[in-house]
Design a protein that fits this description.
Layout (H helix, E strand, L loop, with lengths): L3 E6 L19 H13 L4 E4 L8 H10 L5 E6 L6 H14 L5 E4 L16 H20 L3 E4 L4 E5 L15 E5 L3 H10 L2 E4 L4 H17 L8 E11 L2 H17 L14 H8 L6 E2 L3 E2 L14 E5 H14 L1 E7 L3 H11 L1 H8 L2
Parallel strand pairs: 1-2, 1-13, 2-3, 3-4, 4-7, 7-8, 8-9, 9-12, 9-13
Antiparallel strand pairs: 5-6, 10-11, 11-12
Helix pairs in contact: 1-10, 3-4, 4-5, 5-6, 9-11
Length: 358
Amino acid sequence: MSSEFLWYIPNTVEPGHRGDDTTSGWGSIEYSTDLARTAEEHGWGGALLGTGWGRPDTFTVATALAARTTTFKPLIAIRPGYWQPAHFAGAAATLDQLSRGRVLVNIVSGLDNPAAYGDTNVDPAQRYARTREFLYLVRRLWTEEHVTFEGEHFRVSESTVAPRPYVGGERAHPTLYFGGASEAAERVSAAEADVQLFWGEPLDGLTERIDRLRTLSEQLERRHKPLEFGLRITTVVRDTTDEAWDAAEAKVAAMAARADESAWTGNRGTAVGQQRLLDLARRGDVLDTCLYTAPGRFGGGGAATTWLVGSADDVATALDNYRKLGITHFVLSDTPYKQEISRIGDELLPRLRASARP
Protein backbone atom coordinates (compact mmCIF):
# COMPACT_ATOMS: atom_id res chain seq x y z
CA MET A 1 0.00 0.00 0.00
CA SER A 2 1.50 3.37 -1.02
CA SER A 3 1.97 6.14 1.53
CA GLU A 4 0.56 9.68 1.43
CA PHE A 5 2.72 12.56 2.72
CA LEU A 6 0.90 15.84 3.36
CA TRP A 7 1.83 19.17 4.93
CA TYR A 8 -0.42 21.58 6.87
CA ILE A 9 -1.59 25.07 5.89
CA PRO A 10 -3.13 26.88 8.89
CA ASN A 11 -5.63 28.88 6.80
CA THR A 12 -6.06 31.79 9.19
CA VAL A 13 -6.00 35.57 8.89
CA GLU A 14 -4.14 35.99 12.18
CA PRO A 15 -0.31 35.89 12.12
CA GLY A 16 1.70 33.97 14.69
CA HIS A 17 -0.03 30.60 14.34
CA ARG A 18 1.91 28.09 16.49
CA GLY A 19 4.85 30.46 16.69
CA ASP A 20 5.21 31.21 12.96
CA ASP A 21 7.09 34.52 12.69
CA THR A 22 5.65 35.61 9.33
CA THR A 23 3.94 38.94 10.00
CA SER A 24 2.11 39.72 6.76
CA GLY A 25 0.04 38.07 4.08
CA TRP A 26 -1.93 35.68 6.28
CA GLY A 27 -5.32 34.92 4.78
CA SER A 28 -4.35 36.19 1.33
CA ILE A 29 -4.46 34.03 -1.79
CA GLU A 30 -0.83 34.94 -2.48
CA TYR A 31 0.35 33.63 0.90
CA SER A 32 -1.61 30.37 0.75
CA THR A 33 -0.66 29.78 -2.89
CA ASP A 34 3.00 30.30 -2.03
CA LEU A 35 2.76 27.63 0.67
CA ALA A 36 0.92 25.21 -1.65
CA ARG A 37 3.38 25.67 -4.51
CA THR A 38 6.33 25.33 -2.15
CA ALA A 39 4.82 22.07 -0.93
CA GLU A 40 4.58 20.85 -4.54
CA GLU A 41 8.19 21.79 -5.22
CA HIS A 42 9.52 19.95 -2.18
CA GLY A 43 7.82 16.60 -2.56
CA TRP A 44 4.58 16.91 -0.58
CA GLY A 45 1.42 15.35 -2.00
CA GLY A 46 -0.69 18.22 -0.68
CA ALA A 47 -1.71 19.74 2.65
CA LEU A 48 -4.41 19.71 5.28
CA LEU A 49 -6.19 23.08 5.36
CA GLY A 50 -7.13 24.23 8.85
CA THR A 51 -10.79 25.00 9.51
CA GLY A 52 -12.74 26.95 12.09
CA TRP A 53 -15.36 29.64 12.36
CA GLY A 54 -13.60 32.99 11.92
CA ARG A 55 -11.07 31.57 9.46
CA PRO A 56 -11.27 31.84 5.67
CA ASP A 57 -13.76 29.32 4.32
CA THR A 58 -11.79 26.11 3.84
CA PHE A 59 -13.58 24.87 0.73
CA THR A 60 -13.21 28.23 -1.04
CA VAL A 61 -9.48 28.33 -0.26
CA ALA A 62 -9.07 24.72 -1.43
CA THR A 63 -10.73 25.58 -4.75
CA ALA A 64 -8.44 28.55 -5.30
CA LEU A 65 -5.32 26.51 -4.46
CA ALA A 66 -6.35 23.64 -6.74
CA ALA A 67 -6.68 26.15 -9.59
CA ARG A 68 -3.21 27.59 -8.94
CA THR A 69 -1.31 24.31 -8.56
CA THR A 70 -0.69 21.18 -10.63
CA THR A 71 -0.34 18.18 -8.31
CA PHE A 72 -1.24 19.69 -4.91
CA LYS A 73 -4.07 17.82 -3.15
CA PRO A 74 -6.02 19.90 -0.61
CA LEU A 75 -7.19 17.89 2.42
CA ILE A 76 -10.32 19.95 3.05
CA ALA A 77 -11.50 19.99 6.67
CA ILE A 78 -15.30 20.34 6.87
CA ARG A 79 -17.99 19.98 9.53
CA PRO A 80 -21.41 18.31 9.31
CA GLY A 81 -23.82 20.93 10.61
CA TYR A 82 -22.01 23.61 8.64
CA TRP A 83 -22.62 21.62 5.44
CA GLN A 84 -25.61 19.58 4.36
CA PRO A 85 -24.43 16.26 2.86
CA ALA A 86 -26.01 16.66 -0.59
CA HIS A 87 -24.71 20.23 -0.90
CA PHE A 88 -21.22 19.12 0.10
CA ALA A 89 -21.26 16.01 -2.10
CA GLY A 90 -22.10 18.13 -5.14
CA ALA A 91 -19.51 20.82 -4.38
CA ALA A 92 -16.74 18.31 -3.66
CA ALA A 93 -17.51 16.20 -6.75
CA THR A 94 -17.36 19.34 -8.90
CA LEU A 95 -13.98 20.39 -7.50
CA ASP A 96 -12.75 16.80 -7.79
CA GLN A 97 -13.59 16.75 -11.51
CA LEU A 98 -12.10 20.19 -12.12
CA SER A 99 -8.87 19.22 -10.35
CA ARG A 100 -8.73 15.72 -11.92
CA GLY A 101 -9.04 13.82 -8.68
CA ARG A 102 -7.05 15.94 -6.26
CA VAL A 103 -9.69 16.40 -3.53
CA LEU A 104 -9.22 14.85 -0.08
CA VAL A 105 -11.75 15.38 2.72
CA ASN A 106 -11.28 15.55 6.50
CA ILE A 107 -14.56 15.30 8.43
CA VAL A 108 -14.46 17.13 11.79
CA SER A 109 -17.04 16.56 14.53
CA GLY A 110 -15.56 18.69 17.33
CA LEU A 111 -17.34 21.79 18.60
CA ASP A 112 -16.50 25.06 16.85
CA ASN A 113 -18.73 27.96 17.94
CA PRO A 114 -21.72 26.19 16.35
CA ALA A 115 -24.19 28.90 17.38
CA ALA A 116 -22.41 31.34 15.07
CA TYR A 117 -23.58 29.40 12.01
CA GLY A 118 -26.84 28.05 13.38
CA ASP A 119 -25.81 24.55 14.46
CA THR A 120 -27.79 23.63 17.56
CA ASN A 121 -26.49 20.06 17.88
CA VAL A 122 -23.91 20.16 20.70
CA ASP A 123 -24.46 16.75 22.33
CA PRO A 124 -21.36 14.61 21.57
CA ALA A 125 -23.27 11.37 21.00
CA GLN A 126 -25.67 13.07 18.61
CA ARG A 127 -22.84 14.82 16.77
CA TYR A 128 -21.10 11.50 16.10
CA ALA A 129 -24.38 9.90 15.04
CA ARG A 130 -24.86 12.80 12.63
CA THR A 131 -21.31 12.42 11.31
CA ARG A 132 -21.87 8.74 10.63
CA GLU A 133 -25.00 9.55 8.63
CA PHE A 134 -23.13 12.32 6.81
CA LEU A 135 -20.31 9.99 5.73
CA TYR A 136 -22.73 7.24 4.74
CA LEU A 137 -24.87 9.59 2.66
CA VAL A 138 -22.02 11.50 0.98
CA ARG A 139 -20.42 8.23 -0.14
CA ARG A 140 -23.76 7.03 -1.58
CA LEU A 141 -24.32 10.34 -3.36
CA TRP A 142 -20.86 10.07 -4.95
CA THR A 143 -21.37 6.50 -6.18
CA GLU A 144 -25.11 6.04 -6.79
CA GLU A 145 -27.93 7.74 -8.64
CA HIS A 146 -31.45 8.59 -7.45
CA VAL A 147 -30.47 8.27 -3.79
CA THR A 148 -33.30 8.25 -1.27
CA PHE A 149 -32.41 8.29 2.40
CA GLU A 150 -34.31 9.17 5.57
CA GLY A 151 -32.21 9.18 8.73
CA GLU A 152 -32.35 10.80 12.12
CA HIS A 153 -30.36 13.85 10.98
CA PHE A 154 -30.52 14.00 7.16
CA ARG A 155 -32.89 13.05 4.39
CA VAL A 156 -32.83 13.26 0.60
CA SER A 157 -35.19 11.98 -2.07
CA GLU A 158 -34.22 10.91 -5.61
CA SER A 159 -30.91 12.78 -5.32
CA THR A 160 -28.27 12.47 -8.06
CA VAL A 161 -24.98 14.37 -7.90
CA ALA A 162 -23.65 15.81 -11.16
CA PRO A 163 -20.86 15.77 -12.08
CA ARG A 164 -19.64 12.59 -10.42
CA PRO A 165 -16.27 12.54 -8.62
CA TYR A 166 -13.19 11.90 -10.75
CA VAL A 167 -12.58 8.16 -11.16
CA GLY A 168 -9.13 6.71 -11.80
CA GLY A 169 -7.72 3.25 -11.15
CA GLU A 170 -9.18 1.97 -7.88
CA ARG A 171 -10.26 5.47 -6.85
CA ALA A 172 -14.03 5.93 -6.94
CA HIS A 173 -14.30 9.18 -4.96
CA PRO A 174 -12.27 11.51 -2.67
CA THR A 175 -10.70 9.84 0.36
CA LEU A 176 -12.67 10.47 3.57
CA TYR A 177 -10.46 11.11 6.61
CA PHE A 178 -11.87 11.22 10.13
CA GLY A 179 -10.36 11.59 13.61
CA GLY A 180 -11.53 10.99 17.16
CA ALA A 181 -10.58 8.85 20.14
CA SER A 182 -13.86 8.36 21.98
CA GLU A 183 -15.81 5.11 21.64
CA ALA A 184 -18.48 6.89 19.59
CA ALA A 185 -15.86 8.38 17.27
CA GLU A 186 -14.14 5.05 16.72
CA ARG A 187 -17.44 3.46 15.74
CA VAL A 188 -17.86 6.17 13.07
CA SER A 189 -14.39 5.48 11.67
CA ALA A 190 -14.77 1.71 11.76
CA ALA A 191 -18.06 1.87 9.88
CA GLU A 192 -17.77 4.74 7.40
CA ALA A 193 -14.36 6.50 7.15
CA ASP A 194 -11.61 5.65 4.68
CA VAL A 195 -8.78 6.82 6.97
CA GLN A 196 -8.69 7.12 10.77
CA LEU A 197 -6.39 10.06 11.52
CA PHE A 198 -4.49 9.88 14.84
CA TRP A 199 -2.54 12.51 16.74
CA GLY A 200 0.95 11.78 18.06
CA GLU A 201 0.66 9.03 20.65
CA PRO A 202 3.31 6.46 21.59
CA LEU A 203 3.48 3.27 19.56
CA ASP A 204 1.85 1.11 22.25
CA GLY A 205 -1.22 3.37 22.41
CA LEU A 206 -1.70 3.37 18.64
CA THR A 207 -1.14 -0.37 18.42
CA GLU A 208 -4.03 -0.84 20.83
CA ARG A 209 -6.27 1.61 18.96
CA ILE A 210 -5.54 0.10 15.54
CA ASP A 211 -6.33 -3.38 16.85
CA ARG A 212 -9.56 -2.11 18.38
CA LEU A 213 -10.62 -0.34 15.17
CA ARG A 214 -9.98 -3.43 13.07
CA THR A 215 -12.06 -5.51 15.49
CA LEU A 216 -14.81 -2.89 15.43
CA SER A 217 -14.81 -2.94 11.63
CA GLU A 218 -15.60 -6.65 11.72
CA GLN A 219 -18.22 -6.29 14.44
CA LEU A 220 -19.99 -3.50 12.54
CA GLU A 221 -19.78 -5.51 9.29
CA ARG A 222 -17.96 -2.73 7.47
CA ARG A 223 -19.09 -2.58 3.84
CA HIS A 224 -16.11 -0.68 2.40
CA LYS A 225 -12.48 -1.51 1.71
CA PRO A 226 -10.39 -1.96 4.90
CA LEU A 227 -9.94 1.10 7.08
CA GLU A 228 -6.59 2.84 6.62
CA PHE A 229 -4.69 4.84 9.26
CA GLY A 230 -2.96 8.22 9.35
CA LEU A 231 -0.83 10.31 11.70
CA ARG A 232 -1.09 14.09 12.15
CA ILE A 233 1.93 15.34 14.12
CA THR A 234 4.46 18.15 14.52
CA THR A 235 8.02 17.25 13.44
CA VAL A 236 11.03 19.29 14.61
CA VAL A 237 13.90 18.32 12.28
CA ARG A 238 17.44 19.71 12.25
CA ASP A 239 20.82 18.60 10.86
CA THR A 240 21.77 16.84 14.10
CA THR A 241 19.91 15.33 17.04
CA ASP A 242 21.36 17.92 19.44
CA GLU A 243 20.39 20.84 17.22
CA ALA A 244 16.84 19.52 16.96
CA TRP A 245 16.46 19.16 20.72
CA ASP A 246 17.95 22.61 21.30
CA ALA A 247 15.39 24.03 18.86
CA ALA A 248 12.49 22.12 20.42
CA GLU A 249 13.40 23.14 23.96
CA ALA A 250 13.74 26.77 22.87
CA LYS A 251 10.28 26.62 21.29
CA VAL A 252 8.80 25.17 24.49
CA ALA A 253 10.54 27.84 26.59
CA ALA A 254 8.95 30.50 24.38
CA MET A 255 5.57 28.81 24.77
CA ALA A 256 6.01 28.76 28.55
CA ALA A 257 6.87 32.47 28.56
CA ARG A 258 3.63 33.35 26.81
CA ALA A 259 1.48 30.56 28.28
CA ASP A 260 -0.93 32.99 29.95
CA GLU A 261 -1.47 34.80 26.64
CA SER A 262 -2.01 31.61 24.67
CA ALA A 263 -5.55 30.96 23.47
CA TRP A 264 -5.91 27.54 21.92
CA THR A 265 -9.48 27.42 20.70
CA GLY A 266 -10.08 23.68 20.46
CA ASN A 267 -12.12 21.69 23.00
CA ARG A 268 -8.97 21.14 25.04
CA GLY A 269 -10.71 20.28 28.29
CA THR A 270 -13.28 17.82 26.96
CA ALA A 271 -12.07 16.07 23.80
CA VAL A 272 -11.04 12.48 24.54
CA GLY A 273 -8.19 12.48 22.02
CA GLN A 274 -6.82 15.77 23.35
CA GLN A 275 -6.93 14.51 26.93
CA ARG A 276 -5.06 11.35 25.91
CA LEU A 277 -2.21 13.52 24.64
CA LEU A 278 -2.12 15.73 27.72
CA ASP A 279 -2.03 12.67 29.98
CA LEU A 280 1.12 11.41 28.23
CA ALA A 281 3.24 13.99 30.08
CA ARG A 282 2.78 11.94 33.26
CA ARG A 283 4.80 9.16 31.60
CA GLY A 284 7.75 11.47 30.90
CA ASP A 285 8.93 14.29 28.66
CA VAL A 286 10.24 11.90 25.99
CA LEU A 287 8.47 8.66 25.02
CA ASP A 288 9.47 5.95 22.54
CA THR A 289 12.59 7.23 20.78
CA CYS A 290 11.83 10.95 20.29
CA LEU A 291 8.17 11.78 21.07
CA TYR A 292 8.28 15.04 23.06
CA THR A 293 5.31 15.55 25.40
CA ALA A 294 6.32 18.85 27.06
CA PRO A 295 4.57 21.15 24.53
CA GLY A 296 1.17 20.05 25.84
CA ARG A 297 1.99 21.43 29.28
CA PHE A 298 2.45 24.93 27.90
CA GLY A 299 -0.53 25.40 25.63
CA GLY A 300 0.22 23.10 22.72
CA GLY A 301 -3.04 21.65 21.43
CA GLY A 302 -4.13 19.18 18.79
CA ALA A 303 -1.25 18.11 16.55
CA ALA A 304 1.06 20.53 18.40
CA THR A 305 0.60 18.76 21.76
CA THR A 306 3.34 16.20 21.08
CA TRP A 307 6.29 16.52 18.69
CA LEU A 308 8.74 14.16 17.05
CA VAL A 309 12.18 15.70 17.54
CA GLY A 310 15.56 14.82 16.03
CA SER A 311 17.71 14.62 12.95
CA ALA A 312 16.07 13.58 9.69
CA ASP A 313 17.26 10.03 10.36
CA ASP A 314 15.84 10.08 13.91
CA VAL A 315 12.41 11.29 12.82
CA ALA A 316 12.32 9.05 9.74
CA THR A 317 13.00 6.04 11.98
CA ALA A 318 10.24 7.10 14.38
CA LEU A 319 7.75 7.56 11.54
CA ASP A 320 8.81 4.26 10.00
CA ASN A 321 7.92 2.59 13.31
CA TYR A 322 4.42 4.05 12.96
CA ARG A 323 4.30 2.82 9.37
CA LYS A 324 5.07 -0.70 10.58
CA LEU A 325 1.89 -0.52 12.68
CA GLY A 326 -0.11 0.02 9.49
CA ILE A 327 -0.09 3.84 9.27
CA THR A 328 0.22 4.98 5.65
CA HIS A 329 -1.02 8.60 5.70
CA PHE A 330 1.23 11.24 7.28
CA VAL A 331 0.28 14.90 7.85
CA LEU A 332 3.36 16.70 9.18
CA SER A 333 4.22 20.31 10.03
CA ASP A 334 6.41 22.70 11.96
CA THR A 335 6.86 26.47 12.03
CA PRO A 336 7.84 28.71 10.36
CA TYR A 337 5.61 26.91 7.87
CA LYS A 338 7.31 27.89 4.60
CA GLN A 339 10.84 27.30 5.85
CA GLU A 340 9.93 23.90 7.27
CA ILE A 341 8.02 22.82 4.15
CA SER A 342 11.37 23.00 2.35
CA ARG A 343 13.60 21.62 5.11
CA ILE A 344 11.42 18.67 6.04
CA GLY A 345 10.43 18.01 2.44
CA ASP A 346 14.03 17.88 1.27
CA GLU A 347 15.56 16.07 4.25
CA LEU A 348 12.83 13.82 5.63
CA LEU A 349 10.57 12.82 2.74
CA PRO A 350 13.23 11.01 0.66
CA ARG A 351 14.05 8.86 3.70
CA LEU A 352 10.37 8.11 4.33
CA ARG A 353 9.74 7.17 0.70
CA ALA A 354 12.78 4.95 0.65
CA SER A 355 11.70 3.09 3.78
CA ALA A 356 8.13 2.73 2.47
CA ARG A 357 9.19 0.91 -0.70
CA PRO A 358 8.41 -2.83 -0.66
